[in-house]
Amino acid sequence: MINHPITSSIYEPNQASCKRKNEFIMTQDNSDEAQRENVSRDGFAPIEFTKLSQTTALPKSPRMASFGDGIHDMWLIEDLYCDALSFHDDLLTENEDGERSHPLENTHTILSWALAKMSESPNARIMLIEAEKQGWSLAMDTLGGDDYHIDVPEKLIVLDDQGLMPAALGRSEYFKNAMLVSVIRALRDVWQEKRLGAFEDHYTVQSTLMLERLRSADIDIIGVLTAWELRTKGHSSLWRHLLGGEDGDIAMRFAAILERDPSALYNGKALLGAFTQWFRDENRVDLCDHETLDYLDMVLAEHENTAIQPFGNQNIRAFDIERLSCLPDKTAYLLGFGAEILADPLYAGLNTALNQAHFMQICNDLKTTLVQHVPFRDASLAARIFPNGEFTREE
80 near 57, Cβ under 8 Å? Predict the structure, then answer.
């Protein structure tokens, strides 16, 4: 795995919009000639804050979205990052690691902080830029257990606020880091969604179950990689958060491999070891399978009164596994290991009787086509009797 070097022009496609924002919050009594003289080499005008803007940056107005239990604010990723650039240095505070950041007192500043922080990771920055170009937005709500929710048609990522007020969340290192990990994982999920789409559209139910498990592992692995990259930049808070969390074994395995062989960061061996470690925790695998089976039930319910098959007929291949591990820098840490993963029992099978029974029920339901509450074993017969899922009209 080879990481691209950090460059100052990485946000160049959106510099114009950031510049417009900076010009908007400049002191109104600056003359046009003075502004032209003060333009810096990178194309941004130095910001002169009024007394109001010294208290808080002037963010772009949020859009409104209806989800969860009401109407909530949401912001484009592009706007959030531009607003992070506008924070005033006089408001910087230091945490226990000596890292300087701005007071996070509302949802807008919390999300801007998260994007600014993850942009210092080479791999996370590439995912951030892609989501920004595609017009994705961020919002926060109480999700009741889920780290995040992705609305693909609306291009919206909803993050869990842990049931806390924004000011309380912004003052807690633990909850800030938990939210930052959620942003990283959500952007990796968006990255995978663009390239792979919904597995059930192409693959059998068995293959879909395994691919969802592999994708969940990959999302957690990218969180570990990003935390490590931030640690090398002097931001160790997120790394310590992972070490003390439920994925601490993955982070420790990743670090142990790098301690013995530093080159493992670049050839994919450290990520491969962390990926394998993910599957050694049966509770983690069982929870992932349970959530996937619930999702497959939802897919079946959507097609309950139709003769349309909810799943594809393609079986998982070694290439599918290796493609899933492709990193933003265009390397794949599972390259050459797809066939081995397919044959290894560690990555397959259902560990609990409950998940096994749930899976067998789904397989049994797939053999039955239910149209207008009438069960059919033959889908083509159901389609002839109930075209488009409706009763045939009498002549």
Answer: no
Tokens of 291: 């959530």
pLDDT of residue 348: 87
pTM of full prediction above 0.85: no
State the alpha helices, DSSP H only, in the chain. Answer: 15-24, 32-37, 51-55, 77-85, 107-118, 122-133, 166-171, 173-196, 205-232, 237-243, 248-260, 264-267, 269-278, 282-302, 318-324, 338-343, 353-366, 379-385
pLDDT of residue 203: 94
CA distance 203 to 208: 6
Contact 284, 246 (CB under 8 A): yes
Beta-carbon contacts of 353 under 8 Å, excluding residues fewer than 6 positions away, are none
Please give the Cα distance from 67 to 56 (Å, whole number): 28
Q: φ, ψ for residue 315 (rounded to 5)?
A: -95, 150
Q: Judge whether 85 and 91 are in contact, CB under 8 Å.
A: no
In tens, the pLDDT along 24-72 reads 333 333 434 443 333 333 333 333 322 223 333 444 545 555 555 555 6
User: Within 13 Å, how many C-alpha atoms sit on residue 100's CB side?
Assistant: 6
The amino acid at residue 298 is M
Nearest alpha-carbon partner for 74 in 85, 66, 65, 87: 65
Q: 3-state class of 65 per DSSP?
A: strand
Low-confidence ranges of the chain (pLDDT < 70): 1-72, 84-103, 305-307, 368-386, 388-395
Please give the radius of gyration of the chain, using alpha carbons only, rounded to the nearest integer: 24
Cβ–Cβ < 8 Å for 78, 56: no
Give the separation between CA 155 and CA 345, rounded to whole angstroms: 37
* CB 78 within 8 Å of CB 88: no
Task: Report yes or no: 310 and 303 within 8 Å, Cβ to Cβ.
Answer: yes
Are 81 and 101 a contacting pair, CB within 8 Å? Answer: no
265 beta partners: none
Rounded CA separation 362/300 (Å):
8
